[in-house]
Design the sequence.
């Protein structure tokens, strides 16, 4: 089984001489749920751009689906949500932004309209579809950008902080979209609280732009020394049960934490 993304020796240096990532090897298999985490400034967003084919690395290469190193060849199978939602919103209306991906792929109009309507309903955008994107609030822009990414149902999602600026209600809606996606999901985030709900595997980008760890979610999320060294905090659930349970027993998700407390109380 070929990885959907296979990066070898990725290094990226910006024109000012800053090296964001150094000699990174990352392979993502079909159907995996992976979180790539790191403190702000660690280079994880640059890594997303390199994996998504949006910047050309200074060294190394990325192979997609075992077929090509040209991301544009497989663009219809690969969707990238950037950290700033305004990078995704450039049409006259929200509706046109969400329809853009399906239109580029030549999906039948009726099918595209059903997809847009379903996403708009799920993310509370139904009353905003005919509004210009610049008239949206920060949270509304985030939800519109997420809808645009999901609109053409890609095989691989590369999501940089999809929950930013979104309130708790819609954070859950976005999480449900992510966890319900049939393909591969790679989440990029500096916060580990959402990671247990989404990822089975966690890759940690160190402060120097190298890979500090690549392991099962539990192994990383309960490794306090590793997280401290890389400028990260454990998820709230891990902090809550730290010292009370062994690392193997600590519930990682809020649902598991509730279930544990119901059993012992």
Sequence:
């Amino acid at each position: 089984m070929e990885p959907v993304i296979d990066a070898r020796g990725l290094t990226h240096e910006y024109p000012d001489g800053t090296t964001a990532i150094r000699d990174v090897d990352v392979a993502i298999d079909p159907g995996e749920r992976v979180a790539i985490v790191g403190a702000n400034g660690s280079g994880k967003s640059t890594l997303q751009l390199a994996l998504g084919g949006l910047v050309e690395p200074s060294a190394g290469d990325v192979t997609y689906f075992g077929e090509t190193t040209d991301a544009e060849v497989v663009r219809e199978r690969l969707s990238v949500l950037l950290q700033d939602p305004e990078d995704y919103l450039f049409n006259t209306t929200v509706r046109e932004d969400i329809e853009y991906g399906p239109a580029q792929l030549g999906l039948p109009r009726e099918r595209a309209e059903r997809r847009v309507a379903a996403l708009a309903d799920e993310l509370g955008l139904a009353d905003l579809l005919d509004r210009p994107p610049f008239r949206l609030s920060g949270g509304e822009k985030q939800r519109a950008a997420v809808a645009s990414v999901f609109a053409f149902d890609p095989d691989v999602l590369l999501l940089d902080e999809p929950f930013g600026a979104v309130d708790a209600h819609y954070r859950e809606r976005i999480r449900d979209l992510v966890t319900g996606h049939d393909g591969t999901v790679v989440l990029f985030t500096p916060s580990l609280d959402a990671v247990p709900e989404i990822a089975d595997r966690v890759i940690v980008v160190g402060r120097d732009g190298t890979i500090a760890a690549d392991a099962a979610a539990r192994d990383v999320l309960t490794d306090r020394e590793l997280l401290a060294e890389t400028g990260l905090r454990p998820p709230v659930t891990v902090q809550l049960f730290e010292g009370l349970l062994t690392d193997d027993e600590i519930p990682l998700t809020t649902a598991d934490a509730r279930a544990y407390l119901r059993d012992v109380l």
Notes: The first helix runs from residue 44 to 51.
